[in-house]
Amino acid sequence: MSVKILLLILAALPLPAASIHIYVANSDDNKISVIDPTTDRVSSEIPVSPNPHGIVPSPDGKRFYVSSESKDLLDVVDRKTLAIIGRVPLGQRPNNVAITPDGKQVYICIRAESWVDIVDTASLQRVKRVPVGKGPHNVYRTPDGLRMIATSMDENKLSVINVKSQEVEFEIPAGGVPRPLVIDANPDRSINRLFVQLSNLHGFAVIDWASRKVVGRVILPEAPAGARPLIPETFSHGMAISPDHKTLWVTSLLDNSVSVFSLPQLKRLQTIPVGRGPDWMTFTPDGTRCYVSNAGSNTVSSIDAVNFKELVKISVGKVPKRIITAD
């Protein structure tokens, strides 16, 4: 076989797993910790503005967009140099962020206001504010890329924004104060259900997307007597669906664990002890590892997602929360 043919074959192979990294925003710090999943160690750090809250990569892999909750900014990070190349002024207390599939707009929940800011990524200017109710906290892009779902903590609702019109298309009552949610999508990327964590609920609510109604609640295993969550009124904060869409993973701040449920049945399969104050989580693309940010112990738990076992706690920055996987 000639060298030229060999090079062509190698070029056609998928990228090695080493290109995947885990990024965690340390919310009481000024840095993003970067974890190499092949070693389960912090391989580098990205300096950002103080109190990073949300983080999202651009679809082309060239940038990160990171919200600073205390400085009211959106940091624009060049992923090649890990340098901040722009800062966009936002409303008060920017929280979670999401990006459109074409990478042209970033949506940011403005917690101390009542809207979602939209930033144009070409001009790095805020171009619109979309009213979504008081206390917007988290925002999620739907699997088909056509809508954004924003949670309003002070009005107990979800606002569904049409990306094309940049207006609220409809609202869904959450049945309580909405915290994190995950989208249970069908193979064609249409939405079946939403799983929504609520303040003072040790579990999550189930919302039927078609009827836009809460149709049930799932409760986590009973916590030890006298247990108190790291964050007041926050018994469960952080969920993720495995890449093969067979399991739903849910954190408990009352007993510092992660419970795994089967999909679509929502039958609990296992509960895994982790660090103090488990918050958000993310999977490697192959689904073999789950990483959980432990806000109360300044660590990230690496979990064997096949055998449901914590492998190691990785020390990161102060109060790690939002955590994502990116190549």
Automatic annotation (TrEMBL):
InterPro entries: Host-pathogen_enzymatic-act, N2O_reductase_N, WD40/YVTN_repeat-like_dom_sf, YVTN_b-propeller_repeat. Keywords: Signal. Residues 1-17 form the signal peptide. PANTHER family: DIHYDRO-HEME D1 DEHYDROGENASE, PROTEIN NIRF. NCBIfam families: beta_rpt_yvtn (TIGR02276). This is 40-residue YVTN family beta-propeller repeat protein. It comes from Solibacter usitatus (strain Ellin6076).
